[in-house]
Amino acid sequence: MIRRTSRLSLRMPEEGDIDFLTALFLRPEMVVHRPDPRPDSPKESARRLARDRAHWRLHGFGRWAIETEGRLIGFGGVTVSTEFEGLNLSYHLHPDHWGNGYATELVREALAFAHNDLQAKRVIGLVRPVNLASLRVLEKCGFHFEREVMLHGAPTHLLSHRLAAADIDEPT
To answer: What is the pLDDT of residues 71-84, one digit of tens each?
Structure first.
C-alpha cells in the first residue's frame, strides 16, 4: 500500500532500504540532538529497520519510507507509543532535503492518516528543546506543548495534537 501526497510517496520500509538507513544515521547532523550524539552502527540501523518492519506486521501501519521523484529521502509516520497516550509521530529526513517543506507535508499526511484511517484521537511528538526546526514543523501542524519529559536521559518536549476533522489541513 502506497500513500501519496502532492510530492511524496509513502510506503512500508523494505529490507532493501538498509543501505540508505545506515548511511542516514551515520551522519552527525542526524544524531546531534541525542543525549549521546554518536552515529548509529550498521547493526543499530538494522535493528531500527527490523523494529519498523515488525511494527507494520503487528499493527498494519508504522513509519513509512518516504520517497520523492523516485528517490528515498527518509522515514516517518506514526507508531503505537508504549510510554505515552496516543500515537507517536516521528520522522527522519536526509539533510539534503531539509528546508523544502517535506517534513510539514509528511506530518500533515500522518495526521490525516491517524484521524481518517486509524480514528486516533491524539498524536504526540517528542522533540529535544534545541531542535527548533522540528518544533516549528510540529507547531505549524497544530501541535501544542504539553509538558517536559525525560527521554533517554535528556529533557524532551512532549507536544500533542488532539485530532478532530476540522484540525486536518490538506497537505501542501
So the answer is: 999 999 999 998 99
Tally of domains within the chain: 1
Residue 172 inside a domain? The answer is no
Take residue 29 and report the three cell numbers written for it: 547532523
- CATH code for position 102: 3.40.630.30
With 0-12 / 13-18 / 19 or more C-beta atoms within 10 angstroms meaning exposed / middle / buried, residue 131 is middle
**Boundaries of domain holding 133:** 3-167
Coil, strand or helix at 9: strand
pTM: 0.91
Upper half-sphere CA count for residue 82 (Cβ side, 13 Å): 2
- CA angle, residues 126, 50, 159, in degrees to nearest 5: 10
∠ CA 128-129-132, rounded to 5°: 100
CB 97 within 8 A of CB 168: no
